[in-house]
Amino acid sequence: MTKLLKIIVISLVLVSAPARAQRFSISPVNADPILKTEHIRASVDYLCDPALGGRAIGTEGARKVASWLEGNFRVLGLQPLGGAWLHGFNTSDGMGRNVIGLIPGSGTRYVVLMAHFDNLGTLNGTFYPGADSNASGVAALLELAGMVKHMNTCHKIYGSGLIVVALDGKEKNQAGAAELWRLIDQKKLLDPVSGQPVTASQISLVVNLDQIGGTLAPLTDGNPRFLMMLSDDAAGRRGALENANKGKGFGLELAYDYYGSADFTKLFYRRISDQRVFLEHGIPAVMFTSGITFLNNKPTDTPASLDYDVLHTRIRLIFHWLDKVL
Q1: CA distances (Å), 307 to each of 147, 213, 316, in order?
Q2: pTM of the model
């Protein structure tokens, strides 16, 4: 066969089977490689830097964190709602700042993904780093936003838009979550694509990340690989979480209550975490957590106390679940 004939034959094969040559699958595994443990650790280290003073609402440290988060949202390619990433609000302890960005979807529904960045600060000269509470949740928030955004580059546009929110004021009676609800309720949170306000009826789910980096309070003694998802039975898409956990080989021990206690589940799910205000207004919500340990809300809640390999796995699992929810 001559060289020219070979070229003609090869060309005919490629032309005759374009579907086979172009067929590929868009899967959440496409985003797995961009999740890096060193990125998670770097975020936690920054948030816990003593120079930030513990990130108490109204402090200069909290202002710097909000600015840092705004920069991250810009780099990730999130879009500001209502023309701004920073949304300030007043409290008795000074100005609070929520940082809000959007990854648009193809429809008119939204999922809200949020984590609070404030902590106790420095009290009577004692510095509270707040690594697990809640630098771990903020680090996860940034990684999950990056993974969803990466799926856009793989030509996957989700049906729901993802509203990404770094909340201030959780330690101030969930003031940041209350302000986020106020913006939605008063139709002041404008979608940058449609120009229309985000309404409560358009929010299908709120996902809160609060203390997800610890392994010191396992569900089963000796097993650090676990995760709790607190939700109402019908709200959390538990089947999607179970399927991802088993099908992708994550192998985390999962629980849907707080260590089997109905009272503590109610406390953490309905009263003392940022999803409370949304639940009170009838919006479904879930909370991902690894529970409270003896280090939380103490000076010993440091970056070194977290298990970054397990945190990496938890973030991957939450993303694979989120891929089905959006």
Answers
A1: 21, 6, 14
A2: 0.91
HEC string of the chain equals: CCHHHHHHHHHHHHHHCHHHHHCCCCCHHHHHHHCCHHHHHHHHHHHCCHHHCCCCCCCHHHHHHHHHHHHHHHHHCCEEECCECEEEEEECCEEEEEEEEEECCCCCEEEEEEEECCCCEEECCEEECCHHHHHHHHHHHHHHHHHHHHHHHCCCCCCEEEEEEEECCCCCCCHHHHHHHHHHHCCCCECCCCCCECCHHHEEEEEEECCCCCCCCCCCCCCCCEEEEEECCCCCCHHHHHHHHHHCCCCCEEECCECCEHHHHHHHHHCCCCCHHHHHCCCCEEEEECCCCCCCCCCCCCHHHCCHHHHHHHHHHHHHHHHHHC
Torsions phi, psi for 30 (to 5 deg): -60, -30
Q: What is the pLDDT of residues 163-188, one digit of tens each?
A: 999 999 999 999 999 999 999 999 99
Structural domains counted in the chain? 1
Residue 20 inside a domain? The answer is no
Q: For the domain that residue 279 is a member of, what is the CATH number?
A: 3.40.630.10
Residue 9 lies in a domain: no
Give residue 88's domain range.
27-325
Tokens standing for residue 156: 């996957």
Residue 226 belongs to a domain = yes
For residue range 13-32, list pLDDT tens digits in order: 333 334 443 444 688 899 99
Q: Who contacts 205 (Cβ-Cβ below 8 Å, separation ≥6)?
A: 111, 112, 235, 283, 284, 285, 286, 325
Beta bridge partners of 128: 121
Q: Is the dihedral of CA 183, 65, 42, 152 positive or negative?
A: positive
Residue 267 in any domain: the answer is yes
User: Residue 227 has which token pair?
Assistant: 């995760």
